[in-house]
Design brief:
Helix content is about 40%, strand content about 15%. The chain has a 7-stranded mixed beta sheet with strand order 3-4-2-5-1-6-7, with helices on both faces. The chain is α/β, with parallel strands linked by helices. The radius of gyration is 17 Å and the shape is globular. It contains 12 helices and 7 strands. Helix 8 links the parallel strand 6 and strand 7. The protein has one domain: P-loop containing nucleotide triphosphate hydrolases (Rossmann fold).
């Protein structure tokens, strides 16, 4: 059974797209077939796996408005089991167009239903907002991974996101769960980091990933080369951290999700 996971946080600059790229790539590196769905008009997840916005001919937007099937949008990457549904600036228009669309909250879910049987996991990179695009992603998803920084304002943001997830679970998508909270750009040397980490763990408990993704230059450089960290420098602390996150993520999956990679 395919698992659809949204990577979401309405606060920008917390490592959301970095997490989407590298979680998808790390799970794919273990043999699972993974689709990285770029649902952010900035298109950074697409460029991070080799498809800059100006090089994208067909995007997820084209599938949403019904011009093409989603299967025609999907492209391969340098990892044989990782594929991407790329995005570009056209997706900005979808935020407005979806408002009057029939089944407007389920447009992405309906599109993914056409291809989900081809993949073990689908990872959706959400925009840094709680608008119509993120609502579509959360309605399509089975679970949410929440990246965050160990900073004071991040606590306020994650509280707001938790409330939003609960409202979506109640109103639209009762199966939606929080698959994990991941600390990114973590600096273990500061008291604030330890304090924030402790407060988040007291609220989310075991949902907080044990792996902490550190600040890492190679991890920051990788997207400019169109590669996930494990292809850019697999020995870097960033690449190793996301491989460990992938192990935790896979260990947490329900029994009806693929226990072994599809062959």
């Amino acid at each position: 059974m395919t698992r659809i996971v949204a990577v979401a946080n309405q606060k920008g600059g917390v490592g959301k797209t970095t997490t989407a790229i590298n979680l998808a790539a790390s799970v794919a590196s273990k043999g699972y077939r993974v689709l990285l769905c770029d649902f952010d008009p900035q298109g950074n997840a697409s460029s991070g796996v080799g498809y800059p916005r100006d090089k994208v001919e067909l995007s997820i937007y084209d599938a949403l408005v019904g011009d093409v099937a989603l299967a025609d949008v999907i492209r391969p990457t340098d990892i044989t089991t990782l594929f991407v549904a790329p995005a570009n600036a056209d997706l900005v228009g979808a935020e407005i167009e979806l408002i009057t669309a029939e089944r407007r909250e389920w447009i992405l879910a309906d599109a993914l239903a056409q291809v989900k049987d081809r993949f073990d996991y689908i990872v959706i990179d959400c925009p840094p907002s709680l608008g119509m695009l993120t609502l579509n992603a959360l309605c399509a998803a089975d679970g949410v991974v929440v990246p965050m920084q160990a900073e004071y304002f991040a606590l306020e943001g994650i509280s707001s996101l938790s409330n939003t997830i609960e409202r979506i679970r109640t109103t639209y998508n009762p199966k939606l769960t929080i698959d994990g909270v991941l600390f990114c750009m973590f600096d273990a040397r500061t008291n604030l980091s330890a304090q924030v980490k402790g407060e988040v763990q007291s609220f989310f408990g075991a949902k907080v990933f044990e792996t902490l993704v550190p600040r890492n230059v190679r991890l920051s450089e990788a997207p400019s080369h169109g590669k996930p960290a494990l292809l850019y420098d697999f020995r870097s602390p960033g690449a190793k951290s996301y491989l460990a996150v992938a192990d935790e993520f896979l260990a947490r999956q329900p029994a009806d999700v693929a226990a072994e990679p599809a062959r």
